[in-house]
């Protein structure tokens, strides 16, 4: 039987519920097209780990405050709007939704045959914000969920802090194709695993555009997993047929290269590509 990559719902099942919320995660668990999910986390002012994508709350809640300047008690009173802007378009949902704690999200997943990529969110390589690494690792370890989880980040310092304090927790450095100008140079940097070695990574998570014919093979020889993002992004309006054809071709290419997981806003479309 041909090996297939896991299909991870990007920020939960965002076709149904707001990103990074418990309903979005639960519907990813219930979906026949998902085998896992990805979500983003931040550390609050009082060191609670919450699911959220942006540094600033305005896009998702209408409140112009930075998430790390607020306490969990502050955030408990704030809801994600039913109408949110994503990539230049508007997504509409049935009603508002709460910002969840990481512990509550993990409790929803615990004990199920369901994989999760916890992205430690970073918009700049800040040493000052590194301690989210240890807080996330502590939760994963205390909940005995090491086998279900990979913790990824574009922030070296967060992963360094995670592995320094809790080496048992799986982690992976992440690469985006706009980090530097040359994709070829970035591909070589990624394949060398020089950053992964420094933070003791167990995996790499990469923009799919950076994965070529020998990337996965090199990582698998190191006994490391390879994940990629984001196939079939949920775009404003109907996705053009030529764009669907492009993503379909990419999904099949990545499956042939034996990537370990694919993150997507539309799991059903990836499932059809892999099983059609």
Please outline the helices and strands:
Blueprint: E1 6-10, H1 22-30, E2 36-43, E3 49-51, H2 58-61, H3 72-75, E4 79-80, E5 83-86, E6 89-92, E7 97-98, H4 102-109, E8 115-120, H5 132-142, E9 149-153, H6 156-165, E10 171-175, H7 183-192, H8 194-198, E11 203-207, H9 215-221, E12 225-231, H10 241-256, E13 261-264, H11 267-275
Parallel strand pairs: 1-2, 1-13, 2-8, 8-9, 9-10, 10-11, 11-12, 12-13
Antiparallel strand pairs: 2-3, 4-7, 5-6
Describe this structure in words.
34% of the residues lie in helices and 22% in strands. It is of the alpha/beta class and 276 residues long. The longest helix has 16 residues, at 241-256. The relative contact order is 0.14. The model has no long low-confidence stretch (mean pLDDT 95).
Task: Give short descriptive properties of this protein.
276 residues; alpha/beta; two-stranded antiparallel ribbon; 11 helices
- CA-based shape: globular
Structural class estimated from helices and strands: alpha/beta
Low-confidence stretches: none
- Tell me the major beta sheet: 8 strands, parallel, barrel
Order of helices and strands: EHEEHHEEEEHEHEHEHHEHEHEH
Helix content: 25-40%
- E-strand count: 13
Oligomeric state as shown: single chain
